[in-house]
Specification:
The complex is a heterodimer of chains A (319) and B (246).
Chain A lengths: L1 H24 L4 H25 L7 H19 L3 H22 L5 H20 L10 E2 L12 H25 L1 H11 L1 H6 L4 H20 L2 H5 L1 E2 L1 H4 L2 H14 L5 H20 L2 H18 L3 H17 L1
Antiparallel strand pairs in A: 1-2
Helix pairs in contact in A: 1-6, 2-6, 2-9, 2-12, 2-13, 3-4, 3-5, 3-9, 3-12, 4-9, 6-7, 7-9, 12-13, 12-14, 13-14
Chain B lengths: L2 H5 L3 E10 L2 E11 L4 E5 L6 H9 L8 E4 L2 E2 L5 H7 L1 E3 L12 H12 L6 H14 L15 H14 L4 E5 L7 H15 L4 E5 L3 H7 L2 E6 L2 E6 L1 H6 L1 H8 L2
Helix pairs in contact in B: 4-5, 4-6, 5-6
Chain lengths: 319, 246
C-alpha cells in the first residue's frame, strides 16, 4: 500500500515535470491548445466519477459547474482584474457551495430524478447568466489576457501547466477517497443506501462530501477556460457537451478504479482532437455517442472492468 | 448486573404511532423490552411488524411517539447513529452490498459502527470470528451476489453482528428457507442470544417463534392484540381470529 503511494507521487512528479519541460522546449502552440482541452477533460471526468462513480449519483450538471467556473473567472477578471490563481480558488469555493446544495437534493431525490434535477440546475444557471449584463449577457464577453509571467513565454503554455496541476490535485483526491473510509462508505451507499445507513454509514454526510469535492473540482477546471478562449458566452460555457463528455469518459474508462476516468478522458478527448483536425468538429459528438453505445453493450464496466475480466479469466485458466 | 439495572428496559417504546397519509400503520404501540430477552413479533401480513422495526432502527420518522434505548430518547437520531448506539437489523428481503465480497460487507460495519478505535488487523480478526460463528468462513472472499438464499440471510445477520449490537432485530430471516435451514438459522439466533444480545425476531414460522421466544407480541392492523408467553399468545382468541380470519 505504502509502495503504491510512493509510486503514485513519483508518477505525478514525473508528469508535472514533463508538462513543465514541454512548455519550455516545444515551440509550436498547437500541442498546448489541444493538450489543455485533454487535461481539462481529465479533471472533469475524475471529478464526475467521485459523485457519479463512487457514490452512484449520475450528475448531468457538469456543464453547470463548468460554466459557473468560467463565469466566476470572467466576473473576477472584469470587476477586480483578479489574477488567475484567485479566479480558480474562488471558482472552487463557489463550486463547493453549489455541490453542497446539490448534496442536499440527494436527500429527496435518487436515481433518474436526481439526474433530471441536475439538468434543470444547468438550465436555471445558464438562464441567469444569459440575463446578467455585467458579464456580457447572451452575446458573450471578450476578455483580455494579462501579460505572461516568466518562466512561461506564452499564456496558453501557462494555462496548460496550471491545468496539469489541477489534474494532479483531482487525481490525488480521487485516489485518496477510493482508498479511504470515505470510498468504502460511498461504495456501500451506492449499493444500498438504507442498508449502508443501518450498518452505521453516515450516508448524508458522505454524499455531501462527494458533492462538495466533485463540484469544487469541476468549477476549478472551468475557471481557466475564460482566459484560454479569451471569450465567454453562456451557450458555450454551459454546453451540455461537457456533461455528456464527463459522463461518457468516466463510464468508458470505468468507475471501479480512480484511473478509469483518466484513461477514458485521454482516449476520448485525444480522439476528438484528432477528428477535429482531420475531419470536422461535428464528428466529435458522433464519436462520443457511438463509443458510449459500444461500451454500454460490450463492456458496461468500462475499460477497467474489461481489463479485470481478461486478467480474471486468464488466472482461472491457469488453475 | 444489579437489580436496578435489570429493571431498566433496554428498549422502551412509548405510544408510537405511524401514519402513511390516511393509513395508520401503527396505532399507539407501547412496549418494554428488558435486556437479554428473546422477543418474538408476530402478526398477519400488513399488521405493522416491519413498520415497527423501521421506526426502531430509524428508517422511518415517528409521529407522535418516543423510542427510548438504554434510557436515552433516540427518536430524533438518524439510523446510522442508532446503529452506533447498538441497534442492528437484518432486512426482510436481503440487502447485501452487491459490489463487495462477504468479508468487505462485514468490514463496512466494522469500519463505521465500531464503538472504539481498533486496528485494521483486530477488525479483520473480529470479522473472521463472526464469519466462522455464522458458518460463512469459507465464503469470506466470495462476491455477495454469489451467495445462496440461506447464506445471504446468514451474511445479513453477520453484518448486523459486526456492528457490535446490544439489540439485534431479525426481520423474517427464515422466510423462504427449507426446514433444516430454518433450524440452522434458529440455532444461530439462539447462540447470539446467549452472548448477551437482546433479540427481536419477526417471523411467520410459528414453530420457530414458539421455540425461540421468551415473550411474544402479536400485532394486528397496527395495534397490539396480545402480548405474553408464546403459549399464552397462541391460546389467545383474538390472535387466532387475526390469523384464521374467523
Amino acid at each position: 500500500m505504502k509502495r503504491k503511494g510512493i509510486l503514485f507521487w513519483i508518477g505525478a512528479a514525473v508528469f508535472l515535470a514533463a508538462t513543465f519541460l514541454m512548455t519550455q522546449v516545444v515551440g509550436n502552440q498547437y500541442p498546448f491548445f489541444a493538450g489543455y482541452v485533454i487535461l481539462q477533460f481529465i479533471v472533469l471526468a475524475v471529478a464526475w466519477s467521485i459523485l457519479g462513480g463512487y457514490a452512484g449519483y449520475v450528475n448531468f450538471g457538469t456543464s453547470a459547474f463548468f460554466g459557473v467556473g468560467v463565469y466566476t473567472a470572467v466576473f473576477l477578471a472584469k470587476a477586480f482584474g483578479a489574477p488567475l490563481l484567485v479566479q480558480i480558488a474562488t471558482a472552487a469555493a463557489i463550486g463547493a457551495l453549489m455541490g453542497f446544495a446539490l448534496g442536499l437534493l440527494t436527500l429527496r431525490m435518487q436515481g433518474i430524478f436526481f439526474s433530471i434535477a441536475t439538468i434543470a440546475l444547468t438550465i436555471i444557471i445558464e438562464t441567469v447568466i444569459t440575463n446578467w449584463r455585467f458579464v456580457g449577457g447572451a452575446a458573450g464577453i471578450q476578455i483580455e489576457r494579462p501579460p505572461t509571467t516568466p518562466p512561461f513565454d506564452n499564456y496558453v503554455q501557462m494555462l496548460f501547466f496550471v491545468q496539469a496541476l489541477l489534474v494532479v490535485l483531482a487525481v490525488a483526491i480521487s485516489r485518496y477517497i477510493q482508498n479511504s473510509w470515505i470510498g468504502r462508505g460511498l461504495q456501500a451507499l451506492r449499493d444500498d443506501e438504507l442498508a449502508a445507513e443501518c450498518t452505521g454509514v453516515p450516508t448524508l454526510r458522505l454524499k455531501l462530501m462527494a458533492c462538495v469535492i466533485s463540484g469544487a473540482l469541476m468549477c476549478a477546471a472551468g475557471a481557466p477556460a475564460a482566459m484560454y478562449l479569451q471569450f465567454a458566452n453562456p451557450a458555450s460555457a454551459f454546453d451540455l457537451n461537457y456533461s455528456v463528455s464527463a459522463l461518457a469518459m468516466s463510464l468508458i474508462g470505468g468507475t471501479a478504479h480512480w484511473s478509469g476516468p483518466i484513461i477514458g478522458a485521454i482516449l476520448l478527448s485525444a480522439t476528438q482532437q484528432l477528428l477535429t483536425v482531420t475531419i470536422s468538429s461535428e464528428v466529435n459528438v458522433l464519436l462520443l455517442g457511438v463509443m458510449l453505445v459500444l461500451f454500454v453493450v460490450g463492456a458496461p464496466e468500462g475499460i477497467i472492468g474489461l481489463v479485470r475480466k481478461i486478467f480474471h479469466s486468464r488466472n482461472e485458466g491457469k488453475e | 448486573m444489579t437489580n436496578a439495572e435489570a429493571r431498566v428496559p433496554l428498549l422502551r417504546i412509548v405510544s408510537l404511532t405511524k401514519r402513511f397519509g390516511g393509513f395508520t400503520a401503527l396505532d399507539n404501540v407501547s412496549v418494554d423490552i428488558p435486556p437479554g430477552e428473546r422477543f418474538g413479533l408476530i402478526g398477519p401480513n400488513g399488521s405493522g411488524k416491519t413498520t415497527l422495526i423501521n421506526c426502531i432502527s430509524g428508517a422511518f420518522r415517528t409521529e407522535p411517539g418516543t423510542v427510548l434505548f438504554r434510557d436515552e430518547d433516540i427518536t430524533p437520531l438518524q439510523p446510522h447513529v442508532r446503529t452506533r448506539r447498538g441497534i442492528a437489523r437484518s432486512f426482510q428481503i436481503p440487502r447485501p452490498f452487491r459490489s463487495m465480497t462477504v468479508a468487505e460487507n462485514l468490514m463496512v460495519a466494522l469500519d463505521f459502527a465500531a464503538h472504539e478505535h481498533v486496528s485494521v488487523a483486530q477488525r479483520r480478526d473480529t470479522m473472521m470470528s463472526i464469519l466462522t460463528q455464522m458458518g460463512l468462513a469459507s465464503k469470506a472472499n466470495a462476491s455477495a451476489t454469489k451467495l445462496s438464499q440461506v447464506e445471504l440471510r446468514k451474511m445479513e445477520l453477520a453484518r448486523a453482528m459486526a456492528t457490535h449490537p446490544k439489540l439485534l432485530i431479525s426481520d423474517e430471516a427464515m422466510a423462504g428457507l427449507s426446514s433444516s435451514e430454518v433450524d440452522e438459522v434458529l440455532d444461530l439466533l439462539m447462540s447470539l442470544a446467549s452472548q448477551d444480545i437482546t433479540i427481536i425476531m419477526i417471523e411467520h414460522i410459528m414453530q420457530a417463534v414458539m421455540r425461540f421466544s421468551d415473550r411474544v407480541m402479536c400485532l394486528d392492523a397496527g395495534k397490539i392484540i396480545a402480548i405474553g408467553t408464546p403459549s399464552e399468545v397462541m391460546a389467545n382468541q383474538r390472535v387466532q381470529e387475526a390469523y384464521l380470519g374467523t
